[in-house]
Amino acid sequence: MKINNNHIKEATHLLRNRKTLGTMLKDVWKGHYKMTFYTYAVAVLAIAYAIFPLDILPDFIPVIGWVDDGILLFIMFQQLKKELVRYNEKHATADIVIIDSKIKK
């Protein structure tokens, strides 16, 4: 797979939005926001697979052993990016409703 600028931009999306990601995770923890089941499943499975000592490709093989972990973490980051967009859209519409209701009064 050839890496281009679009891949680099996508990879840095979570890093640039780390405050929003932190806010989203706090809201999830407090019960103010509910992520999709798929996002929960991907995150839990990717982290568990990266930590668990049994892998498809053993980690003691240099570089090759980390490829499967990296692929799953990449999938997790892509899903978190999608969830972050969903979170931002939800809060943007919530802000519009609040502003709109203030105007009506």
TrEMBL record:
Q: How does it sit in the membrane?
A: Multi-pass membrane protein
Compartment(s) of residence? Endomembrane system
Residue ranges annotated as transmembrane are 35-54, 60-77
**What Gene Ontology terms describe where this protein resides (cellular component)?**
endomembrane system
Name the keywords, alphabetized.
Answer: Membrane, Transmembrane, Transmembrane helix
Record-annotated DUF1232 domain positions: 40-74
What is the name of this protein?
DUF1232 domain-containing protein
Originating organism: Haoranjiania flava
